[in-house]
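User: Assemble these into one structure.

Assistant: Restating your components, then the assembled model:
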Amino acid sequence: MKKSKVIVPPIKCQGIKTKIIPFIKEHVKRKKSGLWIEPFVGTGVVAFNIQPERAILNDKNQYIISFYQKIQNGEINSSIVRDFLEYHGSILSEKGNEYYIKMRNDFNSNGDPLYFLFLNRADFNGMIRFNRKGLFNVPFCKKPNRFSKAYITKICNQVENISQIISGKDWKFTCRPWQEIFNIATKDDYIYLDPPYIGRDTSYVGEWPEEEAIALSKYSHATSAKVCLSMWKENQFRKNTHLYDYWSDFYWHELEHFYHIGAKESNRHPMIEVLAIKQ
Ligand SMILES: C[S@@+](CC[C@H](N)C(=O)[O-])C[C@H]1O[C@@H](n2cnc3c(N)ncnc32)[C@H](O)[C@@H]1O
């Protein structure tokens, strides 16, 4: 696999694909003139590394979308991010959890994407989770000195890199139902799918019931565009039966990688990731 530097975005989320970017880049073969379409763009890490000229980047999470829209129109840049994180980071270092909760409450009433960035970079494991009322509810990472100078600089550099990548490109960041995004696609386009894990937990916004996952397979088969699905195949405990049941006619490229539970080296577990590509 050819190694090139992976662009890391300023937003984090569960299931972020940073580690498998070289694998994705190796297998994505697309028409350069076509649209790059991501109905579940998340942090944007895949698009930021593929760097197509034209793209529709969509997600249900309106805060991520408005964060990138504001970078695109210049309302958010690295110096605005620096001022914001320095100011609130210094109060966080004095007040700790109490201030994190204040920022979370403020965000839940103002919906400001800068507050979202602050929470995303100060919360437990960079998680994104909303309760049934749509309120962000991830706890503090418990590190009051989270926003050190070096950490702020790292985030600002990430913002700067992303704004340079977006600049001058025909990219649209949208927050629409994923089905509508499929309807835009034509035969020259490439749809990269990274939906959430199928879950039974109904207490959170953003959960992905099996019916949606099945509908996604139907849309993917019906579209004339090329489709590539990212999904886990198996770990030592479980097989992903949905992949076998609904995507078996796509070509599966497999990659084994390891994840850790806790800090111990012995808790290193293999996981097989698949890129299932429509032939
Ligand atoms: C696995 S993540 C995508 C990760 C992304 N590829 C990355 O590397 O950052 C799945 C994304 O789907 C979004 N999502 C969940 N349900 C959705 C829906 N019904 N429509 C659109 N996006 C949805 C979530 O907000 C989340 O960002």
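The pocket of S-adenosylmethionine is lined by residues 13, 15-17, 39-40, 42-43, 45-46, 59-61, 178, 194-196, 206, 208 (CB under 6 Å).
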